Amino acid sequence: MFRVSTNLGINQTSRPTWTEIDLDVIRANFESVRNFVGREYKYLAVVKADAYGHGAIECAKELEKAGVDWLGVAIIEEAIQLRKAGIKRPILCFGGVWNGQEAQFLEYNITPVVLSLEQASILNSFAESKGRRMNFHLKIDTGMNRVGVRFESLPEFVEGIAELNSIRLEGVMTHFATADDLDEIDFTNRQIQRFEAGCRLLQEKGFNPELLDLANSPGSIVHPNARGNMVRLGGVLYGLGDDILPKGIPLPELKPALSLHTRIALIKELPKGESIGYGRTFITKRKSVIASIPIGYDDGFSRRLSGKSSALLRGKRMPIVGRISMDWLLVDITDLAGKAKIEVGERVTLIGESGEEKILAADLAGESNTISYEITCGIGNRVRREFLKKV
Ligand SMILES: *Cc1c(COP(=O)(O)O)cnc(C)c1O
Fold first, then answer.
1. 0.90 cut: is pTM over it?
2. What's the CA-to-centroid distance between 83 and ligand 1, angstroms?
């Protein structure tokens, strides 16, 4: 049995490995970005991938209260989950329309992004069969070359949808490939020009979509000419600005909303010369005190961080030693244990602050060759969430 030595009156019959998501911070990040970008725009909050690992339902509820106009998800299942939780704002589903999903779009009042003329026809036939009119947004591919109607093919698309009377074009969007990279500003501007040309073409053909959105987080903040009349914010809402926004330019103030914690499960003393963990990648160079920490790569703490990252204990940075395994990692607490009595059950922080020390998701991303988004999205579902909120 371990002794709980710090706060959180959480149910301690389960493994004490948890994230804390501060909903007040998410709200503050939204307000900070809105003040920076401008109140004249509409705001779509992207809560796909369980709000980048922060909990889609709770984040969506908080952002809805904070005044976002739209919510954005990748797949319809995510949108339905939000509707079932009582979310009322319009929801845009970026992932297109897959055959058979049309009824769900209608039933749950979810707005699809249409990625091709074929998808528009599928939607139209369904709407017609129900005697209804369904809204959709069009994604124009202006250079990402991932999904959407490529800008050169827009004339055919427009001709095609002119005959589809049971669907209505409510919005037009595009997505940037390099909005975070100031060296690529010419490419971003080219995407903007192609988008604007597409919008003119639509207008000439009698379409008047009321929502025009291009910008993701870096696009909204870095490129004022890319704001259309709505911006789509993901990462910045969660305070993941450190590795997705350029340096050296004015930025809104942001704070990470998520921290990741666990507690020491076991402490052992090992003599010099003992190997630790799978593959014996670490050999003790001195008489060592090693703490076993109940978090592993299934929980999102990548094996690629083996031998690189550290854990925070009592405000001190302690090295993670040996291989990170599926359920456990090992921390060398020798230095601290020489000065104080460290106990089983003490809180260990893997992302977040402890005393003066701080580990960002972006730090772990840098050490494992990815971006902060993948770190928070990757936190496994065995990790419980605690939502913090003052008011
Ligand atoms: C994920 C996503 C966003 C949000 O991107 P961030 O960089 O997190 O702001 C915006 N638009 C679309 C279409 C997306 O898929």
1. yes
2. 20
